[in-house]
Amino acid sequence: MKNKKSQIKMFETIAVLIIFFVLIGFGLVFYSRIQGPQFQEKQEENFELKAIQTAQIVSFLPEIQCSSDGIITNDCFDILKIDALNYVNTGEIRDEYYFDTFGYSNISINQIYPPGVNWEIYKRPLTNSKSKSSIQVPISLYNASSREYNFGVLNVDVYR
Amino acid sequence: MLMFTDKMKKNKKSQAEIVGLVIIVLLITIGFLFVVKFVIMKEEPDTKKSFVYSELASNTLNVLLKTTTDCEGSDVTELFQDCAALHPRIFCGGVNSCDKVNEVVEYILNKSLKKWNKQYEFNAYIPGSDEPISYYNNNCDENLDKESSTYYILIFEGRTLHVTLDICG
Questions:
Q1: I need a surface site. Which of A10, B64, B98, B161 has the fewest CB within 10 A?
Q2: How many other C-beta atoms are found inside a 10 Å radius of the C-beta of residue B81?
Q3: Which residues of B touch A52 (CB under 8 A)?
């Protein structure tokens, strides 16, 4: 009789333990469900920040930025400097040189007004990329020969 | 009989206690769900959107006003100044500065912001005057969030022209 009572008590303890672990399991599943999307969101945000960072780096690239007597003009690229950059560094050599700075991305400039020339600053897309973040930044394109400012757009596509 | 009534009373009391306990558990659960909804799952601010929109508004306006046009080598700011003046002097190919500046601004906005499907409102006006010098609205409602940029251009007669660009969304 005593044996049966202690057996029942043991079953009771086991049942309590099972319920306890099931509850912990539920808790873990619930926590991971909440944390999963948050982690993904954080990753997404970091990727967006990387795209913004790349756009900022290009905007202040001394190789092509407008300057007069050492004074830099913001949001302005010198057309002659862009041409020179494309002439000196072409294709793979250029893309290899800037890889540490820009990573897997495409950077180009389109002249909108007056309509005309497009320049490719850097091209290194990631094959089989999961996603792409694009940013367009309006910029002035300064022609030092005619002393005219044209309306252009800096296109930055960052891959991951 | 007395014992039976006593047992019944005790049973009812414990039932009421259980109901109270259930209500407390329900209240705690609802509270926890509220915490999950409003604290843990709250929407993060969209970093890219806020940065891009504020940069876009100021950059577009800054670059636009500096752009040189094919009208006597004047830039957009000079055309706005001339258009807002009491006696406009700039004419190019039979077109006055007001028509020219509107043509250039419309072209640039269409080829940039409109092409990228951005909602915007561009307004160039002299405070107190009835009609704006230049006004373009691409689905920018009053209710939408806006990132704004404003430039003030001094006109020859001592008045000020306000040029505003709002990026909405």
A1: A10
A2: 20
A3: 47-48, 51-52
CA distance A76 to chain B (A): 8
Domain extent at residue B115: 47-168
Q: Domain limits at A23?
A: 2-159
DSSP labels for A64-78? TEEEETTEEEEEEEE
B31 and B95 part of one domain: no
Which two structure tokens, joined as six digits, stand for B131?
Answer: 């009609």
Residue B63 and residue A138 in contact, taking contact as beta carbons nearer than 8 Å: yes
- Cα B71 to Cα A147: distance, rounded to the nearest angstrom: 15
Question: What ipTM does the predicted assembly reach?
Answer: 0.77
Q: Which of B44, B66, B116 sits opposite A149 (nearest CB)?
A: B66
- Shortest alpha-carbon distance between residue B41 and chain A (Å): 8
* Together in a domain, B72 and B131: yes
Per-residue pLDDT of chain B (169 residues; tens, 9 = 90+): 556 666 667 777 788 888 888 888 888 888 888 777 766 666 655 667 777 888 889 999 999 999 999 988 899 999 999 998 888 888 888 889 999 999 999 999 999 999 999 999 999 999 988 889 999 999 888 888 888 999 999 987 788 999 999 998 8
For residues B81 and B158, give the distance between their C-alpha atoms in angstroms, rounded to a whole number: 11
Amino acid (one-letter) located at A154: L
